[in-house]
Fold this sequence. Notes:
Blueprint: E1 2-6, H1 10-18, E2 23-27, H2 33-36, H3 50-58, E3 63-67, H4 75-85, E4 89-92, H5 98-108, E5 113-118, H6 121-125, H7 127-131, E6 138-141, H8 143-149, H9 163-173, E7 177-180, E8 182-183, H10 193-203, E9 207-210, H11 221-235, H12 240-266
Parallel strand pairs: 1-2, 1-9, 2-3, 3-4, 4-5, 5-6, 6-7, 8-9
Helix pairs in contact: 10-11, 10-12
Amino acid sequence: MDLLYxxxxxxxxxxxxxxxxxxxxxxxxxxxKKERQRGLDTFISxxxxxxxxxxxxxxxxxxxxxxxxxxxxxxxxxxxxVIEYGADVIMLPMFKTKEEVEKFVxxxxxxxxxxxxxxTATAFxxxxxxxSVKGIDYIHIGLNDLHLSLGLDFMFECLIGDLMEHxxxxxxxxxxxxxxxxIARMGEGELSSEIILKEHVRLGSEMVILSRTFRxxxxxISEEIQKIRDEYNKxxxxxxxxxxxxxxxxxxxxxxxxxxxxxxxxx
Length: 267
């Protein structure tokens, strides 16, 4: 399981690199994000393009992933600069069409790896067209904006039922490495990280973003990362029946949380 750590803090990044974080994540996305996530307890980045050069200098093992803004008039210049400054992977958010993905891939032109952040309902239902584009290296399924786009009450509602599994089977057929959402520290989260990790294993997900709880300084990050690694390796040994049981239990918990949120909204 590849772990993605969002930070532009040099000391944090050095530590994350030393303990084996797989991707350091610089987040340049600003366009439209505050409006989409207004009123939510979500991370709004203060990163800027100059951070890429500084982070690149200190990385020894981890790859540098940069999320840019959605496709627009400035995309080609932004992508060229991000590559010049040292990104290994560029992530495209909020795309809705095959044509946007084609532009993104053509602008990168094989210079670095291509990662799509699938987080709109439109892209979800146009996945066959989108997957016909050649040159996609990674797909990350962004649960926060996806659940907003679908009009759901709880981020992890995207995982209930079998729609996510249907999407993932299409991605697997293209042999594209994929990940799903984020994860809190073990023992934390409204939906426990232990349950979420087991679902990653069942679905075949190989990437996850570490939530901002890993950056609050209250616990030693190396110990927390090792807990995730240990839990994931343990889950890999579970039987199919055990993973399906976890899925059924997860769906019940998610439905219960979503119902409470709907009730609170009505009241």
